[in-house]
Structures are given as C-alpha cells and as structure tokens.
Amino acid sequence: MASSASTKPIFSSPIISSSQPKSSKSSNLSFLSSNTFGVKPNNNINNLKLSSQQHSFVVKSVLKTVDQTKQTTSSNNVAFNDEKPTILVSEKLGEAGLQVLRQLGNVVCAYDLSPEDLCKKISSCDALIVRSGTKVTRQVFEAGQGKLKVVGRAGVGIDNVDLQAATEFGCLVVNAPTANTIAAAEHGIALLAAMARNVSQADASLKA
User: Fold this and answer.
1) Would residue 109 count as lying in a domain?
2) CA-angle at 156, arms to 150 and 159, nearest 5°
3) 14 prior amide bond cis, ω within 30
4) Is the same domain home to 118 and 195?
5) Is 204 found in the same domain as 133?
C-alpha cells in the first residue's frame, strides 16, 4: 500500500530521486545506451573495462539499496537474498548497456507495450528502464504493487514519469542528465557547416 508521508518528489542534481535523501546511493544511467546517447568514445581498453566495472558496481548498489524485499532480518543476524532482480527494458537501448544490465539481473526486453501490457508485466519486475516513449503513470506504480524499486530514464527529461506516484510508492527515479551532450554538440557543428555551405538553399533549389 502506498505511503502518503511525503507529498512532493525529492529532487537532487544531477540525479532525480523520488524517495531517497541526497546522501543515498543513486546512479547516472548514461552508460546504458550507445554513443548516440552521449557516451564519449574511449580508445583505452583498460579504461573502458574499469568504467564498465564501476558502472556495474553503482547500479548493483542502487538495486540492492532500494530493494528491501531482498533483505530479511532475524533476531541474530541479517541475511541477503542473492536472487537477481528482474529488469524490464521497454524501449531499445544500446547493446553495451544491455550487457551491463544482464550482469546485474534478469533482463526482459519488451518494446512497444500498450499501457495495459506494461501494467501486466511490471507486477513481476524490480526495475524499469525507459526512454521518452514510455509513460510511467500512477497506474504503472500501482500495478508494481511495491515491488518496483527503480525507474531509470535513459535520457535527460523525466516528464514521462509520475514523480508524485513514485514518491508515494517508494520508487527511486534516476536519469542521465548529460546523455545527449555529444549529440547536441554534433548537431550544432552540422548546422554551422550547413549554413557555411548553403546546404539548405541548395536542397530547396532541387525541389519542385
């Protein structure tokens, strides 16, 4: 059952957290997608391996931190359930990002889901990864029945996530605030080159 203790989502920069204080573990998910999403190419293989290991550690820490159902307490000790979380990916991501997720949990890729189908699938998932096309509404959190602990937005904006509902259901929301930095820079350079070479005018002259 949802808790009404908090009435406003809690924002922390650059990570957006709907239920955790600023000191809690959180993750920037910009690594989940390919270079199109702003992952800077790196020619140093050792650095790539180290970066991948660091990202894996961060996301695993987030999932373990927020998923209280994987922790059971007795009078003498605390035991942890090592069962891997189920991660639903509702929109296409880069293969490199999917490989990282597969190291951390059981990844289910289901694209172009209707709102009804998303609600059906989310009931058995611990985490949800979306881009801009999937609307994570209150109905989705209600269907999650408290099991859904992390919603990762593989991009900048979080307008498609109901932060109020996420707060009430104790679900952490994270995004990738610098995911499109390189793409935006490339687009700006392309526009400058097009203006310098009159590409728009040349294109228009070829059309009837």
Assistant:
1) yes
2) 70
3) yes
4) no
5) no
